[in-house]
Amino acid sequence: MKTILHKSNTRGYADHGWLKATHSFSFANYYNPDRIHFGVLRVLNDDIIAGGEGFGTHPHDNMEIITIPLYGALEHKDSMGNHGVINSGDVQVMSAGTGIYHSEFNANSDIDANTLQIWIFTKIKNVTPRYDQITLDKEKMKNNFLQIVSPDKDDDGTWIYQDAWFYLGEFDEKKSVKHKLKKETNGVYIFVIEGNAVIEGIKLEKRDALGISDTGEIEITAEAKSKILLMDIPML
Fold it and tell me: What is the CATH number of domain 138-234?
């Protein structure tokens, strides 16, 4: 088993006034040669967006983009004709494929929004761009990892063009769960959104992350009430 620990306070940070962005991997003006990606996971940005502010229209291509609002809401528009609001408790997926343009703004003028934006290297290039948005069943997340993303359009959650599975769970204190990796060549990247947990003997606190590879199964124990994102992804 190989592990790599990314403590919250070692992430890149940029304060743009309207945007306070924390980067788990090299992004924009933050560059760390030891943190370019973990397997196919290229970007994990933890963004706080001021009321009424946001990202103007900009392009993406050949990337799988997953957005998870933690609190607040985002107003989304794109060149595929999609226009709507993504609320806390929703998950948005875009397969950028041959190319899309989109914008995302805080849907509220008086409160901040906090979102995770995740980029995954795609398995299939130059597909027709697609968009999907789902609302999670919070009851199914209680003391359980709810599958929110997979490579199978007929499976639970939404889907992307990559052999990657995302799970989100909310755990009570002292609750332990095991996760069996989906493929022998995959690894897992675990991000503690809230609370703290012990994973394979390594303690993680709020916004810490742990990458694990060369293993078939892991065990996670919440040491306090915790919300955890687990990504089961190819290691390239």
Answer: 2.60.120.10
